[in-house]
Amino acid sequence: METIRVIIIDEQPLFREGIRATLEQMGNCEIIGESTDVGEVLDIVRTNTADVALIDAGLTSSDPLEIARQTRHLAPRTAIIMLTPSEDEERLFQSIKVGAAAYYTRNITAQELVDAVRKVSQGEYLINDDVLSKPQLASRVLRSFHELTVEKEEGTPKDSYSPLSSREVEILDYIARGNSNKEIAKSLKISDQTVKNHITSILKKLSVSDRTAAVVHALRHGWIKINEN
């Protein structure tokens, strides 16, 4: 197994020690740095190849979002996991915007943390699927991704090839507008199970772990568009 190199950015010593102990028990995880100071964190990022950065979203000594943003700028391959004190839609939105791959409350279990670190280190995107169950938040998140994508790719031709069927693209379009499986089934006059089967197929074809990541992938490739209304 390849070693997973991790930076821990958390200002609570006991919680930080718990994270370190949990990850060291994985057997293939190396903690390459711990700090809450922006300068120190960025020095670690610059001089080491980190696979994962665990960031306390409730930092008081530094701006956790700025740490995440600068880390992603200096090391785009470093996956960010944000650990938040409580459920907070605004914090979730901002975390997604700066490129976090996963977002959990601090009551995450040791096994959930291990699984998350493994998955994001392999390039998986684990932002909770609950995002798309909240229409207003989903609209903000997806519109933001769309705007960022346009800024980055303006003038670059979109990838017209899609591995998805026309029905799967249609379902992704409904998902992007915040529709539940039941609402999609009703609109398309198909069963809930058929919708679930299509979504399973979509996730497999795009090699993503949840509906949010599938929609973001489709947006970035120009297969679906956000309604501007």
Features:
elongated, 51% helix, five-stranded parallel β-sheet
Secondary structure blueprint with pairings:
Blueprint: E1 4-9, H1 13-24, E2 29-34, H2 38-47, E3 52-56, H3 64-74, E4 79-84, H4 89-97, E5 102-105, H5 110-121, H6 135-153, H7 166-176, H8 181-188, H9 192-206, H10 211-220
Parallel strand pairs: 1-2, 1-3, 3-4, 4-5
Question: Can you give a write-up of this model?
Answer:
- This protein is α/β, with parallel strands linked by helices and 229 residues long.
- The chain has helices at 13-24, 38-47, 64-74, 89-97, 110-121, 135-153, 166-176, 181-188, 192-206, 211-220; strands at 4-9, 29-34, 52-56, 79-84, 102-105.
- It has 10 helices and 5 strands; from the N terminus they run βαβαβαβαβαααααα.
- Strands 2-1-3-4-5 form a 5-stranded parallel beta sheet, sandwiched between helices.
- The longest helix has 19 residues, at 135-153.
- The protein is elongated and about 55 Å long.
- Keywords: DNA-binding, Phosphoprotein, Transcription, Transcription regulation.
- Residues 157-222 form the HTH luxR-type domain.
- This is DNA-binding response regulator.
